[in-house]
């Protein structure tokens, strides 16, 4: 089975690879467009980005399964939350979607995003590190390393694969 991952971000690629079990699995990772804003600003937009990435991945890579993972933020009356979504697409099935754990972003980060900055560079600046988005992620920084981005996306990926297996077993 050929699984195409719609990103070359190592935190995402490792997260997907370790979510699948079984034999004869071939993985390929491709940079594909999300066709949403560089910084998605709602659950709706972030889900759409994940689905778009999954669709582009399966088509471009000529795979059996396409996976898209997308990071964004979502405004609530309690503040701006980090949100992450994943989508799995395969022929003959509606897209399967799953969401990741979410945490409230500090006010100083939220302000910068509301002023149009992107979370990736803002996190590097805030944490005085390079490529936070490819490593522990904002979730890793703000949970003191207890939950990192790969782990969070691995949970999302397992929820995608598990739902896919359930539907396949039921013959849906
Ligand atoms: O290489 P790709 O797959 O594009 O990965 P990405 O991290 O750049 O892209 P996402 O679409 O997942 O995230 C959208 C934006 O939010 C940033 N972002 C999202 N979650 C983040 C996190 O946990 N830590 C740091 N930046 C994050 C990210 O860097 C982008 O600027």
From TrEMBL:
Q: What is its EC number?
A: 3.6.1.73
Alphabetized UniProt keyword annotations = Hydrolase, Magnesium, Manganese, Metal-binding, Nucleotide metabolism, Nucleotide-binding
Superkingdom assignment? Bacteria
- The reaction(s) this protein catalyses: ITP + H2O = IDP + phosphate + H(+); XTP + H2O = XDP + phosphate + H(+)
Gene3D superfamilies named in the record:
3.90.950.10
Return the Pfam families for the record.
NTPase_I-T
The record's comment on protein family reads: Belongs to the YjjX NTPase family.
> Under what name is this protein listed?
Probable inosine/xanthosine triphosphatase
């Amino acid at each position: 089975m050929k699984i195409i991952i719609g990103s070359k971000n190592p935190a995402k690629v490792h997260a997907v690879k370790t979510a699948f079990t079984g034999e004869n699995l071939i993985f390929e990772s491709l940079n594909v467009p999300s066709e949403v804003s560089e910084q998605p600003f709602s659950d709706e937009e972030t889900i759409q980005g994940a689905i778009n990435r999954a669709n582009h991945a399966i088509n471009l890579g000529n795979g059996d399964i396409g996976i898209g993972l997308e990071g964004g933020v979502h405004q609530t009356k309690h503040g701006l939350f980090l949100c992450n979504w994943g989508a799995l697409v395969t022929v003959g099935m509606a897209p399967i979607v799953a969401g990741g754990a979410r945490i409230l972003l500090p006010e100083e980060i939220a302000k910068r995003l509301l002023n149009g900055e992107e979370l990736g560079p803002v996190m590097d600046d805030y944490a005085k590190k390079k490529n936070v988005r490819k490593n522990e992620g904002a979730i890793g920084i703000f949970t003191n390393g207890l939950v990192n981005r790969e782990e969070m996306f691995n949970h999302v990926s397992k929820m995608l694969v598990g739902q896919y297996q359930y539907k396949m077993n039921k013959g849906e």
